[in-house]
Amino acid sequence: MLTVAVLISGTGSNLRALLDAADDPDYPARVVVVGADRQADGLEHAEAYGIPAFTVPYSAYASREDWGAELDAQLRVWNPDLIVLSGLMRLLPAAVVDAWAPRVINTHPAFLPEFPGAHGVRDALAAGAPQTGASVIVVDNGVDSGPILAQERVPVLPDDDEHTLHERIKPVERRLLIDVVRRVATGELDLAAASTPASHTP
Ligand code: GAR
Prior knowledge:
alpha/beta, 202 residues, GART, binds glycinamide ribonucleotide, seven-stranded mixed beta sheet, 7 strands, Formyl_transf_N_sf, single chain
């Protein structure tokens, strides 16, 4: 059984979907802990499922590195097989990424490498893109620049605003995330191999 830590900042709808999926005895992964960088609304999902939760408030630390060191210490208590950034709106310090790589994955509401960063949905709308999407990637030390594990297109509709478009992207993200975690758990998807540049034999 693959053990998963989920890190959030917001409402945690993707977390909730993963908790629902993991409620099925046939699903090969379990969320063992939920962490947040603030008093995120999504922590209530952990409570509803009886999953331990912790908060490492970003604002309480002098630097991103200090915050990351405490986050890392909390994660080490649970020693999960996989860390899912599910709407964590902070960049992890390099020391944390390096300590856990390649076992940190991130969901993103755009078809990467298009529209990386904190405002993927807003940026797609501002660019007038006819379509955007959802992606699940391995986290590296760039901004949404790691290897892509799964992604799917979502059309932008003429009347879309940031909220309506994001709400149409999120169900796609959930489906991709649940499937990626399942494939990591069964060994069908090897994160180390996915993170290694393909070797070319002459
Ligand atoms: C999700 O769409 C996630 O991809 C996005 O925040 C949302 C969180 O929703 N993350 C990013 O934009 C990270 N760059 P949720 O809290 O309802 O799961």
